[in-house]
Design the sequence.
C-alpha cells in the first residue's frame, strides 16, 4: 500500500535547544525522514539555535551523527543525508541575553511559515517568547512548539500559559504530547468514528471496563533528580494517559477539526470524579540482586515518589456512568508496552450453558510495540466433541496489514512537526485542557501527600505492587498480562 505524501508549505523551523538530547534523538532524525519522504519543499530551512558556540559546518556534523545514530536505514543513503544537511544551519544564541538574536532574525525569511520549537527547559519559555516578540519574530504567521512538562501543577501551568499568551495567541501555540502523534492513537479515532460497528457499543451498557497501561522496562536512568520531583503521576498520567483516556472516552466531535476535538476531550477531563484513596496504588521498584532500586537510582534514600501508579477512575456522564477506567503505568516492569483494552460485557444469556465457560469480546489497541489492534471473538473450538467455545484474536498488526509503509510512518515527532507547519492543532493540547488535567491531578497528589502515603515496593521485572492486582481483583477483574 502506498501512502500519500503531501508536501507542506515552505518553512523556517528554528529549534531552540538544537544541540540537546531531544533534538538529537527525535526532532532532527524525524525531520530527516520527512525530507526523505519528499514532504519538505526545496526552500525549507532548519535552524539549530542553542548555547554552544558552533558554526554551520560544526552543526551539520552534529546533525549527521544524530541521523546516523537515530534515523534508521534511511541514514545509509549518503545523497539524502547530504541533501538534508544543505537545509540546516546554526545560530549560537542566549535565551536569556541578547547574543545571537539579530543573527537569528537575519536567517528567518519573510513570507514563509515560521515555527519555533522550544526544546529547552520550561524555565526558558518566557525568555524566548519575549525575545521573539522583541525581535519582530512573533507575527501571526509564527508558531511555537512547547515540550512537556507543561507545568508541575495547576498554578505553574496557568503561569506558563499566561507567559506565552503575552506574545502568542492560542492558535499559535502547539503543546506537544508525542503520544498523540502515534499512528494507533489516530487510528483510535478512525476506528471509533469511521466504523458503525463499535460506536453503538461504546458505552456503559456494553463496556464492562477499560484498561490503559503504559509500562516501561527501564528505570529512571539519568533523569533521577527530575523524576524524583515529579513521579509517575506528573510524568505520565497527567499528560499521556490522560490524553489516551480522553480519546477513548470522548463524544464524537461534529468534525475532525482542532477545536471540535479538543472541546470533547476537555469535557471528559471535566467529568472525571475525584479519586478515592483506596482506588490509588503507588509503588517504587525495589532493589534486586544485581540492580539498584528506585531510591538508589534517584540518590534519595527517603524518597516517597512513585515510579508506579495504578488508579481506578469514573467519568460521570451519561455515556460512562458506572463503567470503571483502570490506569496503570510504571518503570522497571516486565515488558515495554502501551495498550488500551476495552473489555465488553458478557452476552446477556448463554445459549450454550454453563459448560461453555465465560467468554468476552476484548478490543486491545496496542500503541507499542507493534502498533495494531486485536479483537478477541468467541468461536467454536474446532473438532468434534460438542459445542466448546474458545476466544481467538482477530489480529491487525498494522505493519502486517498495511506493509512496510505503515512501519515507517510510526514516528510520532515527525508527524506532529509537519502538523505544526500545516497549522493543524488537532493533535496538540489546548491551554484549558492542560489546566483541567492539572485541576484533576492536584488534589490527588495533595491527598497522598497529606496522608504521608508510602509507595509500596515492587519487584523489578514484574507487574507492579500486589495492591495493583488487588485493585482489580476486588472488582472481580484482572489486568491484561504485560507482554512486550
Ligand atoms: P538538554 O539538556 O539535552 O538540552 C538543552 C538544550 O537547551 C541545549 O541545546 C542547550 O544548549 C540549550 N540551552 C540551555 N540553556 C540555554 C540558553 N540560556 N540559551 C539558549 N539555549 C540554551 O535537554 P533535552 O533533553 O533536549 O530537553 C529539552 C526539552 O524537552 C525539555 O523541556 C525537556 O523536558 C523536554 N523533553 C525532553 C525529552 C527527551 O527525551 N530528552 C522528552 C520529552 C520532553
Sequence:
Amino acid at each position: 500500500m502506498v501512502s500519500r505524501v503531501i508536501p507542506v508549505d515552505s518553512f523556517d523551523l528554528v529549534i531552540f535547544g538544537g544541540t540537546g538530547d531531544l533534538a538529537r534523538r527525535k526532532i532532527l532524525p524525524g525531520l530527516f525522514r520527512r525530507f526523505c519522504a519528499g514532504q519538505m519543499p526545496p526552500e525549507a530551512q532548519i535552524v539549530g539555535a542553542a548555547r554552544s558556540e558552533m558554526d554551520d559546518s560544526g552543526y551539520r556534523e552534529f546533525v549527521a551523527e544524530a541521523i546516523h545514530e537515530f534515523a534508521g536505514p534511511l541514514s545509509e543513503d549518503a545523497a539524502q543525508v547530504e541533501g538534508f544537511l544543505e537545509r540546516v544551519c546554526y545560530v549560537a544564541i542566549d535565551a536569556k541575553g541578547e547574543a545571537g538574536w539579530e543573527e537569528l532574525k537575519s536567517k528567518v525569511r519573510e513570507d514563509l511559515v515560521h515555527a519555533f520549537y522550544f526544546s529547552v527547559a520550561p524555565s526558558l519559555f518566557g525568555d524566548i517568547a519575549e525575545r521573539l516578540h522583541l525581535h519582530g519574530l512573533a507575527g501571526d504567521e509564527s508558531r511555537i512548539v512547547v515540550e512537556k512538562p507543561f507545568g508541575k501543577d495547576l498554578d505553574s501551568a496557568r503561569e506558563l500559559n499566561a507567559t506565552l499568551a503575552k506574545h502568542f495567541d492560542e492558535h499559535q501555540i502547539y503543546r506537544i504530547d508525542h503520544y498523540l502523534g502515534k499512528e494507533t492513537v489516530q487510528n483510535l479515532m478512525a476506528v471509533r468514528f469511521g466504523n458503525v460497528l463499535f460506536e453503538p457499543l461504546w458505552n456503559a451498557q456494553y463496556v464492562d471496563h477499560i484498561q490503559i497501561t503504559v509500562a516501561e522496562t527501564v528505570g529512571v536512568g539519568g533523569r533521577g533528580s527530575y523524576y524524583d520531583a515529579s513521579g509517575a503521576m506528573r510524568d505520565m498520567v497527567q499528560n499521556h494517559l490522560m490524553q489516551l483516556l480522553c480519546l477513548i472516552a470522548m463524544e464524537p466531535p461534529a468534525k475532525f477539526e482542532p477545536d471540535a476535538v479538543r472541546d470533547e476531550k476537555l469535557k471528559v477531563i471535566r467529568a472525571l470524579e475525584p479519586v478515592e484513596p483506596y482506588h490509588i496504588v503507588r509503588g517504587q521498584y525495589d532493589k534486586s540482586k544485581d540492580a539498584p532500586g528506585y531510591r538508589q537510582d534517584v540518590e534519595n534514600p527517603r524518597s516517597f515518589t512513585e515510579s508506579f501508579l495504578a488508579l481506578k477512575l469514573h467519568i460521570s456522564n451519561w455515556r460512562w456512568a458506572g463503567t470503571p477506567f483502570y490506569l496503570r503505568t510504571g518503570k522497571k516492569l516486565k515488558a515495554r508496552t502501551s495498550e488500551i483494552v476495552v473489555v465488553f460485557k458478557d452476552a446477556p444469556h448463554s445459549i450454550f450453558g454453563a459448560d461453555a465457560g465465560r467468554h468476552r469480546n476484548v478490543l486491545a489497541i496496542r500503541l507499542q510495540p507493534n502498533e495494531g489492534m486485536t479483537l478477541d471473538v468467541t468461536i467454536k473450538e474446532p473438532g468434534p466433541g460438542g459445542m466448546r467455545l474458545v476466544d481467538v484474536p482477530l489480529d491487525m498488526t498494522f505493519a502486517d496489514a498495511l506493509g512496510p509503509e505503515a512501519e515507517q510512518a510510526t514516528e510520532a515527532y515527525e508527524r506532529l512537526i509537519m502538523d505544526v507547519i500545516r497549522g493543524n492543532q488537532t493533535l496538540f493540547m489546548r491551554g484549558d485542557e492542560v489546566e483541567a488535567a492539572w485541576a484533576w491531578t492536584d488534589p490527588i497528589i495533595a491527598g497522598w501527600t497529606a496522608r504521608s502515603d508510602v509507595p509500596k515496593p515492587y519487584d523489578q521485572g514484574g507487574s507492579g505492587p500486589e495492591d495493583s492486582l488487588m485493585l482489580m481483583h476486588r472488582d472481580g477483574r484482572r489486568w491484561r498480562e504485560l507482554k512486550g
